[in-house]
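mind reviewing this fold:
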Amino acid sequence: MRPTTRRILAAATGLALLAAVPACADDAKQAAENVPGVTDTEIVIGTHQPLTGPAAPGYSKISAATKAYFEHVNSKGGVNGRKIVYKVMDDGYNPANTENVVRKLVLDDKVFALLGGLGTPTHTNVLEFVKTQKVPDLFVSSGSRNWNQPDKYPTTFGWQPDYTVEGKILATWVKQQFPGAKVCHFGQNDDFGRDSLAGVEKVLGAVAAKQTYTTTNQQVGPAIGALKAAGCQVVISASIPGFTALAMGQAAGQGFRAQWVVSNVGADYTTLSNQLGDKKVILEGMVADNYLPMVGDTANPWIQEFTKIHQKYNSANPVDGNAIYGYSMAYTFVQALLAAGRNPTREKLVEAVQKGGFRGPGLTPFRYSDDVHAGYSGVRLNKVQNGAQAYFGPTYTTDDGDAAIVEAHLALIDEGDLRPTGERIAERAGVSLRTLWTNFKDMETLFAATGRLVGERLDALWQPIPPDLPLTRRIAEFCDQRAEMLEVLAPSARASALREPFSPQLRRNREAAIARVRHEIELVFEPELAHAGPGRDQLLDALTVACTWAAWAMMRDAMGLDVAAARATLARTIGALLVDAIAAGLR
């Protein structure tokens, strides 16, 4: 586990790029044939949400924000000329209802994809059905590890950090801040609570006491009384908002004073304050985590842009953490839809998410790959003080298992050991060889994890470049960043080249790296790409080739150029390609 200084505050102007140039009508009509939910003018997607029931407080507003973001995109022409239709069905946070509404969405409404279905117990109930129907099941609104089973559920993907990742990070902070304290766990009686507890106990060992609740029973008094009787000094809570409020309210009523450390899914201050009313003072000092910009950070360009969209399309609801969640998830979906191309199919959409490379308001990178369908890789802690919720400390990333092994693998490569053996990796990580192969079934899975770590390193170096800057300045800033990234990439790229002929995973890692740089080029040089007209894709291919490791290695290794000379050559190449495209577009 490690803190990262990654800054991911993007210029708000970049959000406008998600409204893509409309596709040719004939192409769109041809693409829409035999693709469920896709016509030449629309893409229909659906979701199940708790608009009523025990999870409705706060969560019922997420889909309203998601729909508002799609209205914003649709007002700019949609995605490749198609407007997004988002069908929201209420399941009341009841798994039986979820099965009914999802069947309707897939079989009757024939949606192209499911997006953001909310809840661990609810969505778990439809996984097998979704699998048999081969429907893209994107960005489930839950941190359960169930969504990260690509071999078993190949079309399902998480979005938020999983509860084990979150539990490990919260427990690490507690271990540092409260050494020797009695730490206890309060959690939902399903995979949400169990995954959270698993993460906590990976760091702390067995907790001093643990209690659970069920969403059909609001009587949490006995559970809170048991934690008090056990002498708990810190309570890590894996709870939805309604039960966070009930638990903390009961604790206050029983005179049980402990430090509450709450999962992000149940810790939005605005939602909890509305539920507690005059008793909201009990939230003072509550520590939680998040991975998106805090709603109170009005200087953040993402918050500024989302607020504008909210005021225009969603003003009846509060701007709170649930709204920011909905807007951010919708932004990621539009990126995935763009990456699926002008003629999207369900298969292309799944492949686009697996390639990853998405950017957005999150504080940490996504983990997506062929072998990992989990979402954000970490969180940052926040605290309620004087009626406001604000971040403190660094942002942390981790994974479900032992990140020390992956870091050891990459450290050996960085030091010049381009073919480290399992024995050397285990020795460097300070674990047994058996532990290494317990966490990673073979070298291919280790290569996948190492590829994700390299991706995180590159994400930490990326700084969004507003597309409205003068072209010369954009080229300069882009080449500065690209040169730095390629030098960071160099050791692992050289190591991969030795084994790639025999490793499908290393080839997938290379494809993901190419997709990453291609996406960066689209963000920075979209105005010039638009000028290219029918030659847009060819220009994008040429720019991508110029910016990849293969071109950089030729300059640095074969030609002997130093970093400055290679960077200057890259800038000249990009400039020449873009100027030529602009000139061709004006002729």
